[in-house]
Amino acid sequence: MSKRLDDLEARIVRCRRCPRLVAWREEVARTKRASFADEDYWGRPLPGFGDPRASVVVLGLAPAAHGGNRTGRIFTGDRSGDWLFRALHTAGFANQPTSTHRGDGLQLRDCWVTAAVRCAPPANKPTPTERDDCRPWLVAELRELTGAGVIVCLGSFAWDAALRTLRDLGHEHRPKPRFGHGATATVGPYTLIGSYHPSQQNTFTGKLTESMLDDVFATAADLARRLS
């Protein structure tokens, strides 16, 4: 990883900007879930991770309380991540289809995974203020990911966060593109691709299927090839 991304990661993991999120992430890390009682929880904000030369950025909502907030890596160790990493592996972006903990051997190729909000929020619902206070981290991340041209937005929250972030970077689309599964929008030098979030609410009900998620990442891979 580049020194600038390393420095950014160090700043992110020290962030205590949002009192409600700080209190919640640390309370969860202390009390733990019974099935993870013997584990040391991360309990801090999460930086993005992956290939610093990535063409594709995957943007989620926020860490899961007993997923990324436990493992220290976004989407790792939770059900949403099970769906995501399988799809990334199928599309050729990951060397393995699962990720259970930091140091499990997962490597991403031409892909960077990150989140709009870096701390686990109560009920998975950040406030608008927390969303906005966290956005400078994503702005800084995209500035360093100079090869990125595709942003896969997992859910409408991530879609909206991406549009706000790109506006901060000087890129805006009028009228505002509408989110939808498989929706695409060109915003400055970036192409946004929308996907339903691989949450259990969507995967258990069939709103999102494996083939639907695979189609999104096949589109992202095709766009990435055009950028290379």
Record the SSE blueprint.
Elements: H1 3-13, H2 19-31, E1 49-50, E2 56-60, H3 68-71, H4 79-90, E3 111-115, H5 128-144, E4 150-154, H6 156-168, E5 184-187, E6 190-195, H7 200-203, H8 210-227
Parallel strand pairs: 2-3, 2-4, 4-6
Antiparallel strand pairs: 1-3, 5-6
Helix pairs in contact: 1-5, 4-8, 5-6
Task: Report on this structure.
The structure is a single chain. By secondary structure, this protein is of the alpha/beta class. It has one domain (3-227): Uracil-DNA Glycosylase, subunit E, CATH 3.40.470.10. Helices cover 40% and strands 12% of the residues. It is built from eight helices and six strands; from the N terminus they run ααββααβαβαββαα. A six-stranded mixed β-sheet has the order 1-3-2-4-6-5, with helices on both faces. β5 (184-187) and β6 (190-195) form a beta hairpin. α4 packs across α8 and α5 packs across α6. The longest helix has 18 residues, at 210-227.
The major beta sheet can be summarized as: 6 strands, mixed
What is the CATH topology assignment? Uracil-DNA Glycosylase, subunit E
Query: Superfamily at the CATH H level?
Result: Uracil-DNA glycosylase-like domain
Give the quaternary arrangement of the chains. single chain
**Helix percent band:** 40-55%
Tally of helical runs: 8
Strand order of the largest sheet: 1-3-2-4-6-5
CATH class: Alpha Beta
Between the first and last Cα atoms, what is the distance in angstroms? 20 Å
In N-to-C order, the SSE pattern is HHEEHHEHEHEEHH
Shape: globular
Unreliable runs: none
Strand content: 5-15%
How does the helix and strand content classify structurally? alpha/beta
Radius of gyration: 16 Å
* Mean residue pLDDT: 96
Number of E-type strands? 6
